[in-house]
From TrEMBL:
Required cofactor(s): Zn(2+)
CDD domains per record: M1_APN
Superkingdom as given in the UniProt entry: Bacteria
Protein's organism: Craurococcus roseus
The protein's name: Aminopeptidase N
Domain Peptidase M1 alanyl aminopeptidase Ig-like fold stretches: 446-550
Keywords of this entry: Aminopeptidase, Hydrolase, Metal-binding, Metalloprotease, Protease, Zinc
């Protein structure tokens, strides 16, 4: 397969002023008639270029140009499915009629059926599977859509924009027309049709317009839409208040579908959502699910301005809309509850997914330079690191200038397709700050490592902080340049732990609170004056840059964990301290020595519980030990087994040593009132379940507590927290899992949880169980949620058992990828990822992983996406 390169971008030869589409829906044979008004692009480089329209798997039934049938000799159909007119006139009206088979579309890209209804997914390149079109984001077109379908089977007919008429036709059919007044790229096209019901509400915009809000679901799911609707209304209000962005259509539709490759899609006026991110009620959805609904609803809504009104020039600019929109949804969620806890969770996610990607074979810059399959670049780097880079700009120029920059960006690029440079230029022009050095953050892959070294001169009362940065090489980028790194910081007094005012050499006055140092070169020295005693530096407050901060001594980490004024650094220092201790224990375990125990870890748990009432949500973040993945990332070569055993040993020991305090907190936080997904209630449940996890690790008393919670809990958060603990017990696990399945077998999203819990079990037979579960009547390779819940959870969420010495975990994943690739290549390509990280394991595991990857690569007719992941993994 051929790679596409960023620098090969050329403006499109033709633009499409309008597209009139007509759909005659039928699962086996849908007919799509399209009328495109095309005109040569005045900005095109070649004034005589042919007209080329993308197409894939389309059966051409008819073609006319300017109303006249177009002879076969005047156009060609390419092997890739495209249609080329070698000698077009400069302005033409092209009519095509094609046939497609939505019910055979198992890739869920283009028009497909799910549960008897029709849905589309066009980002990134799905529209070409619906009709012939220049399917690239810089071609922005006004669309009108007419849909005809059997009225009894498909009573609801939806598309983008505003409704523009509906009526009955012949033979039991009916029709509906939709007009979208806003020009948009084809990837934002959407159509949904079927037997759906709406949960409706309305929102009055700041200029006083009423917008109808509908969430379309299958009958029976109406009672699970309230939180999505509430989140949508809060998002609409927030975007008006914080960015001045008002919604621009009369109606905002959301349709939920259970077969979907990703989380959701921001199609103009008709968002399509994975049911996982819409449906929530207390007895079926966990707190995490509620938070997921809020975030994804907000994210897709925010795309209306950052992505839809201003879109991307080409797919290399993907982070222009995704990084910016993730930044916006993070800001929104932070504003809904505790900013600090939200930040901790976001950083935890970044470290769990993006840092390993940046250190692996698929490492790429936030703005990639080339790709084989663009679907492979919807990555944590483009999304989460992209959001961090937007945050860097925000930190550098401040909130007010950032807002002015956003205004300018939209003013300059509304209704057009922009680049990452355009965004940076708007921020620069609005702030007057030279941001050119920040371009490197978009261009350079890899996670920078920052080390700090402090030196105190008692006689001069001077403290010198030296910061150094280094980014390890990544594939295709052996040499790295220094990046501009804002380091938000403060100084604590080492003795009292109190925050000190800071005065840098050359400054007239001392400052109180957090200040930001800019590390712009490989090394920088910062000299602080009037420092009365050796300080403890508190660095990277709020996680002010997406870097790894290394080398703080253990005693300083302990002081920071106990005393820092910045909640992020307080949390992070506790985690870093525990990680350092645990890695020491892992090394001891590998030498065959007994594990030992650092009493400071138990003290930290007790101190945390003693102060938990002030902020239970924060305490819940600080209580658990660092995860197995985080620990593995700190090692030159991971040792998943040793890490797991050390972590288990410590959990048991802390659970036993702190049993009284844990039990007391557990009892005190018992839920009394009705379920509520607000931040404080989530924090309390989360802390209580963290206590339960330690108690269950310590022994049978805790397990009995978990069993009692499992039996009595009235919300899914508490039921699932208990079940995940019981599943580790040979005595309680089988009965609890069977009871859970019997109770929830009719609810797809809950059955997903049942699969995941088993896939993430540390029990010895887990790999065999995962194989067996693939034959369970409820399992299907055709449903992406189910694939992710079983196979994704096993390979990414259970390092201990995935890296089982037998190699059976690797083999089962490779088998699944090979079986899934012909059905749904995009999901298969995502699934293969963990095998590509074989260099992080020691022999013989690394060799076994590599061989499985080779087996995937040797599979006949491999899709280009899976080929790209497997071949880059082996390179
Ligand atoms: N912009 C959306 C991306 C997306 C997608 C990409 C490839 C294949 C299927 C897909 N479904 C949705 C989602 C978002 O980031 O908002
Ligand atoms: Zn997005």
């Amino acid at each position: 397969p051929r790679a596409i390169h960023r620098l090969d971008y050329r403006p499109p030869a033709f633009l499409v002023d309008s597209a009139d589409l007509h759909f005659d829906l039928d699962p086996a044979a849908t007919v799509v008639r399209s009328t495109l008004v095309l005109r040569r692009n005045p900005k095109a480089e070649d004034r005589h270029a042919p007209l080329r329209l993308d197409g894939e798997g389309l059966t051409l039934l008819g073609i006319k140009v300017d109303g006249v049938p177009f002879p076969k000799t005047h156009y060609t159909l390419g092997e890739d499915g495209s249609l080329t007119v070698p000698n077009p006139s400069d302005i033409l009206v092209l009519e095509t009629e094609v046939r497609i088979a939505p019910e055979e579309n198992t890739a869920f890209s283009g028009l497909y059926t799910s549960g008897g209804n029709f849905y589309t997914q066009c980002e990134a390149e799905g529209f070409r599977r619906i009709t012939f079109f220049p399917d690239r984001p810089d071609v922005m077109t006004r669309f009108t859509v007419a849909i005809t379908a059997d009225k009894a089977r498909y009573p609801v007919l939806l598309s983008n924009g505003n409704p523009a008429g509906a009526g009955d036709g012949e033979g039991g059919k009916h029709w509906a027309k939709w007009e979208d007044p806003h020009p948009k790229p084809s990837y934002l096209f959407a159509l949904v049709a079927g037997d759906l019901v709406a949960v409706s509400d309305y929102f009055t915009t700041k200029s006083g317009r009423d917008v109808v809000l509908n969430i379309w679901v299958r009958a029976g799911d109406e009672d699970k839409c309230a939180y999505a609707m509430d989140s949508l209304k809060r998002s609409m209000k927030w975007d008006e208040e914080v960015y001045g962005f008002e919604y621009d259509l009369d109606v905002f539709n959301i349709a939920a579908v259970s077969d979907f490759n990703m989380g959701a899609m921001e199609n103009k006026g008709l968002n399509v959502f994975n049911t996982k991110f819409v449906l929530a009620k207390p007895d079926t959805a966990t707190d995490g699910d509620y938070q997921g609904v809020e975030t994804v609803i907000a994210h897709e809504y925010f795309h209306n301005w950052t992505g839809n009104r201003v879109t991307c020039r080409d797919w290399f600019q993907l982070s222009l809309k995704e990084g910016l929109t993730v930044f916006r949804d993070q800001q929104f969620s932070g504003d809904q509850g505790s900013r600090a806890v939200k930040r901790i969770r976001d950083v935890r996610g970044l470290r769990a997914a993006q840092f390993p990607e940046d250190a692996g074979p698929m490492a790429h810059p936030v703005r990639p330079d080339s790709y084989i399959e663009i679907d492979n670049f919807y990555t944590p780097t483009v999304y989460q690191k992209g959001a961090e880079v937007v945050r860097l700009l925000h930190t550098r120029i401040g909130a007010q200038a950032f807002r002015r920059g956003m205004d300018l960006y939209v003013e300059r690029h509304d209704n057009s397709a922009a680049t990452i440079e355009d965004f940076r230029a708007a921020m620069q022009d609005a702030s007057g700050v030279d941001l050119s050095a920040f371009a490197k953050w978009y261009e350079q892959a890899g996670t920078p490592e920052v080390t700090a070294e402090g030196e105190y001169d008692e006689a001069a009362r001077r403290y010198t902080l030296t910061l150094r940065q280094k980014t390890p090489p990544t594939p295709g980028q052996p040499e790295k340049r220094p990046l501009p790194i804002p380091v938000a910081m403060g100084l604590l007094d080492a003795g009292t732990g109190r925050e000190q005012p800071t005065r840098l050499q050359g400054e007239n006055e001392a400052r109180t609170g957090t200040r930001t140092l800019m590390l712009e070169d490989a090394e920088a020295r910062f000299v602080f004056e009037d420092v009365p005693a050796p300080p403890v530096p508190s660095l990277l407050r709020g996680f002010s840059a997406p870097v790894k901060l290394k080398g703080l001594p253990l005693d300083q980490l302990r002081t920071l964990a106990a005393r820092d004024t910045d909640p992020f650094t307080r949390w992070d220092s506790g985690q870093q301290y525990a990680a350092a201790v645990m890695l020491g224990m892992v090394a001891a375990h590998r030498r065959g020595e007994p594990p030992g125990f650092d009493p400071a870890l138990a003290e930290a748990v007790r101190a945390n519980l003693a102060g938990a009432d002030a902020d239970p949500a924060f305490a819940a973040e600080a209580l658990p030990l660092p995860g197995e993945g985080f620990l593995a990332d700190q090692m030159d070569l991971a040792d998943p087994e040793a890490i797991h055993l050390v972590r288990r040993h410590l959990r048991r020991r802390i659970g036993a040593e702190c049993a009284d305090a844990l039990r007391e907190t557990y009892e005190r936080l018992a839920d009394t009132g009705p379920y509520s997904p607000d931040g404080a209630s989530i924090g309390r449940r989360s802390l209580r379940n963290a206590c339960l996890a330690y108690l269950a690790a310590a022994g049978e008393d805790g397990m009995r507590l978990a069993r009692a919670q499992f039996d009595a809990a009235a919300n899914m958060t508490d039921v699932l927290a208990a079940l995940s603990l019981l599943a580790e017990s040979e005595e309680h696990g089988p009965a609890a899992l069977a009871a859970f399945h019997a109770r929830w077998r009719g609810d797809e999203l809950v059955v997903d949880k049942w699969f995941s819990i088993q896939a993430m079990s540390a029990q010895a037979g887990t790999a065999a169980r995962v194989r067996e579960l693939q034959r369970h009547p409820d399992f299907s390779l055709r449903n992406p949620n189910r694939v992710r819940s079983l196979l994704g959870a096993f390979a990414s969420g259970n390092p201990y058992r995935f890296h089982n010495r037998s190699g059976e975990g690797y083999a089962l994943l490779a088998d699944a990828v090979i079986a899934l690739d012909p059905i749904n290549a995009s999901t298969a390509a995502r699934l293969v990822g963990p095998l590509g990280l074989w260099r992080r394991q020691a022999p013989p595991l690394s060799g076994m992983m590599r061989r499985e990857l080779e087996r995937v690569l040797a599979a006949p007719n491999l899709s280009k996406g899976t080929y790209e992941k497997a071949s880059k993994g082996l390179a």
